Amino acid sequence: MRLLILDEPTASLTETETAILLNLIKDLQAHNIACVYISHKLNEVKAISDNFCVIRDGEYIGTRPAKGMSEDDIITMMVSREITSLYPHEPHDIGEEILRVENITAWHPTNTHIKRVDNASFSLKRGEILGVAGLVGSGRTEMAQCIFGSYLGKYQGDIYVEGQKGQIKNCAQAIEKNIVMVPEDRKKHGIVPIMGVGKNITLAALLFR
Q1: How open is the CA angle 2-6-9, to the nearest 5 degrees?
Q2: 171 Cβ partners below 8 Å, 6+ apart?
Q3: Global pTM?
Q4: Radius of gyration, alpha carbons of the chain
Q5: Residue 151's domain spans which residues?
Q6: 58: in domain
Q7: ABC transporter domain: from which residue to which, for each copy (predicted)?
Q8: 177 falls within a domain
Q9: Cα separation of 81 and 63, whole Å?
Q10: How do residues 178-191 score in pLDDT, each as one tens digit?
Q11: Do 112 and 66 fall into the same domain?
Q12: CA nearest to 18, candidates 9, 30, 5, 6
């Protein structure tokens, strides 16, 4: 017998890398290697599984053939009730404008002939969620870094916080204005690796000491 157990193998993979891995697993199946694939990503489970089993709060709920089962059916087994809306709209009040970004332009850190962000503008109101979409390399991350003051290259533009034009030249100034950022690559940009865990946890608080 040959058995491979994979526990959340795509947690840190991109969509392209995930597709490659799923194809490799199918190849293993074709060579009579059995696989146990543990995941909360139901589309992956359905894509490669012959059968699936559901465990809830440590209790075995049941096993079903993957063919003919929808994601809604699997979710119902997982939560023991029918889910009519995964993302229900909760009405809430939208307040006044708290952030306005005007004409943000950022140049490549080592090649100033290349613009990473070109004349971007938007506004954000209190209680509002603004989604920023773009492919890798489109400038979405660089724009966020400009707002947070962490972009390493040259950039220009105006940022207004609660109606007041702000001078955000570094992360400390952004945090003083209650602007924080969770970076895309947390291992690279979210910690200071030469510092211990304790100092990393309290790093933001140290700015005000």
Answers
A1: 145
A2: 148, 149, 150, 181, 207
A3: 0.60
A4: 23
A5: 96-184
A6: yes
A7: 118-186
A8: yes
A9: 17
A10: 898 888 887 788 88
A11: no
A12: 9
